[in-house]
Automatic annotation (TrEMBL):
Organism the protein comes from: Nasonia vitripennis (Parasitic wasp)
Official protein name in the record: Immunoglobulin I-set domain-containing protein
Lineage summary: Eukaryota, Metazoa, Ecdysozoa, Arthropoda, Hexapoda
Keywords (A to Z) from UniProt: Signal
Signal peptide (residue range): 1-24
SUPFAM superfamilies registered for this protein in UniProt: Immunoglobulin
Pfam families: I-set
Keyword Transmembrane helix: no
Domain Immunoglobulin I-set, first and last residues per copy: 149-248
Length: 265
């Protein structure tokens, strides 16, 4: 069995090599002959391929930045018929640019922070009514600086004097930022540091996926003075930084409590 590849087909050939021993003369004995029998199977199978590339990949990069233009190109290679091509970001169809090539289409869109982790998809279907469906896809990684704090995300409630407490802050950034906490805006603690009182500690940051980070500060044995100060978090990556402020309270009203639970705080 051997394989031959042509421009648009794969030819599968099977051949049987027979060795026959034919008697010639008693003096010579048996003569060995190789007889090649013609292929008993000859089948061509169309070679189908769809390629998907982005402008970042053309420049040797794999990531994009929020606010920049994503340009995607989808091509159907080695096809005998034309195809209907669509390009999606997750399930959102992107507007296609005009093209003279029926088997090559381009689309573009400005990327947002929320596009990080979405799948860029190229979907092609045969225009001749054949039940063919080709698809290529990849996950898009979008870099962006730490996003500003929402105004309603400042207060934390339901803490009690004498108990241990954990303050959670949701940070959205990609790539992963560095984090620093402080109960004094002029002096920050780095990862897993204690302050001088040994009551404040930065816990391990949780990676919730797609640039979502849950950052935690623990406080041992809450005191009255802990309710009379602000807590500051600074998040920084190579694209920028943001500061977050938290104030803890003993009691919150029901509306505040519902908002905190909805945000996973």
């Amino acid at each position: 069995m051997f394989t031959h590849r042509c421009s648009s087909s794969v030819v599968l050939l099977s051949a049987v090599l027979l060795t026959a021993y034919v008697a010639s003369t008693p003096a010579v004995g048996r003569e060995k002959r190789d007889i090649l029998v013609k292929p008993d199977v000859y089948r061509c199978k169309k070679h189908k391929e769809v390629t998907l590339t982005t402008n970042a990949e053309k420049h040797g990069d794999k990531v994009h930045q929020a606010g920049q233009l994503l340009e995607a190109e989808c091509k159907i290679v080695d096809m005998d018929s034309t195809h209907e091509i669509s390009i999606y970001l997750d399930d959102e169809p992107l507007e296609l640019l005009k093209s003279d090539d029926a088997n090559s289409r381009k689309a573009s869109r400005v990327l947002a922070v929320s596009d990080n982790g979405k799948r860029l998809r190229c979907v092609a279907s045969d225009n001749n009514g054949k039940p063919e469906h080709l698809e290529a896809s990849r996950e898009i990684e979008v870099y962006f600086p730490p996003q500003p704090q929402a105004q309603e995300d400042v207060e934390r409630c339901d803490y009690k004097i004498g108990e241990n407490a954990v303050i959670n802050v949701n940070v959205y950034a990609n790539p992963r930022p560095t984090f620093k906490w402080s109960a004094n805006p002029d002096k920050y603690m780095k990862d897993k540091d204690y302050d001088k009182s040994n009551r404040f500690r930065i816990q391990s940051t949780e990676d919730l996926g797609k640039g979502h980070w849950l950052v935690k500060l623990s406080i041992d044995e809450l005191r009255q003075s802990d309710f009379e100060r602000f807590y500051y978090l600074q998040a920084s990556n190579q694209l920028g930084s943001s500061s977050y402020v938290v104030f803890i309270k003993i009691h919150c009203d029901e509306e505040q409590r519902s908002n905190f639970l909805a945000n996973g705080i």
